[in-house]
Amino acid sequence: MVRMTSVTKSYHSGTRPALDDINLEIGAGEFVFLVGPSGSGKSTLLRLLLREERPTSGVVEFAGRDVASIPDRRVPLLRRQVGCVFQDFRLLADRTAAGNVAFAMDVTGRPRHVVRTVVPEVLDLVGLAGKENRYPDELSGGEQQRVAVARALVARPQVLLADEPTGNLDPATGAGIMNLLGAINRVGTTVVMATHNAALVDTMRRRVVELEHGTLVRDQASGGYEPTL
Ligand SMILES: Nc1ncnc2c1ncn2[C@@H]1O[C@H](COP(=O)(O)OP(=O)(O)OP(=O)(O)O)[C@@H](O)[C@H]1O
């Protein structure tokens, strides 16, 4: 599903690369935690998959395609297959929960009647039934993140990237979002989640990929936040 081969990313020549010779393969249906200290390159790795950045050298592949060589006009298509949620939710403040999700469907040209049917279904799926008409500032942080997840899901992405999705949430609310991502993974979506949340990583016991100063220092099946034997 995702393959990185000798991927190096330098934002400025002469400085230490943000990613340094990364080799990584993620199969369809996997759940992967991406961990490492601040500045170790986690967001950069996700940005390469979204084609927000291109590697300085090496190859990033998604579903067998070289992501860097996808023509600009086809990048929106990539971003339907590779969904993302962020720490700061990034919702449109002037649209309701339903409006935010509908907007994501409208831009992909889905017919109105499909949007009207699917939006409440997806909001129900993420646990927001009854709150469809609330604006982001009328929702808790966890609820806003659920809207962001719903918005990512309506495109039916093959891979969902989550960059510190629980970073702004209290532990219980973060655990709720984690359960939601786990459920999305169980129905077949590949999930890659960058996080500093040690408790969640330790509880879930999934594959853990650890970066340090841009290099991959650990790739462990059923790992914890800290390396174990
Ligand atoms: N747009 C940019 N321009 C220049 N340097 C950047 C840019 N984005 C990131 N960097 C640098 O690249 C390195 C990796 O940053 P990155 O954001 O990928 O780390 P991270 O592991 O996601 O950190 P955090 O956990 O704090 O989000 C850092 O040294 C950072 O300063």
UniProtKB/TrEMBL annotation:
<dbReference type="InterPro" id="IPR027417">
    <property type="entry name" value="P-loop_NTPase"/>
</dbReference>
<keyword id="KW-0547">Nucleotide-binding</keyword>
<dbReference type="InterPro" id="IPR003439">
    <property type="entry name" value="ABC_transporter-like_ATP-bd"/>
</dbReference>
<comment type="function">
    <text>Part of the ABC transporter FtsEX involved in cellular division.</text>
</comment>
<keyword id="KW-1003">Cell membrane</keyword>
<protein>
    <recommendedName>
        <fullName>Cell division ATP-binding protein FtsE</fullName>
    </recommendedName>
</protein>
<feature type="domain" description="ABC transporter">
    <location>
        <begin position="2"/>
        <end position="229"/>
    </location>
</feature>
<comment type="similarity">
    <text>Belongs to the ABC transporter superfamily.</text>
</comment>
<dbReference type="InterPro" id="IPR003593">
    <property type="entry name" value="AAA+_ATPase"/>
</dbReference>
<keyword id="KW-0131">Cell cycle</keyword>
<comment type="subunit">
    <text>Homodimer. Forms a membrane-associated complex with FtsX.</text>
</comment>
<keyword id="KW-0472">Membrane</keyword>
<dbReference type="GO" id="GO:0051301">
    <property type="term" value="P:cell division"/>
</dbReference>
<dbReference type="InterPro" id="IPR015854">
    <property type="entry name" value="ABC_transpr_LolD-like"/>
</dbReference>
<keyword id="KW-0132">Cell division</keyword>
<dbReference type="Pfam" id="PF00005">
    <property type="entry name" value="ABC_tran"/>
</dbReference>
<dbReference type="InterPro" id="IPR017871">
    <property type="entry name" value="ABC_transporter-like_CS"/>
</dbReference>
<keyword id="KW-0067">ATP-binding</keyword>
<dbReference type="InterPro" id="IPR005286">
    <property type="entry name" value="Cell_div_FtsE"/>
</dbReference>
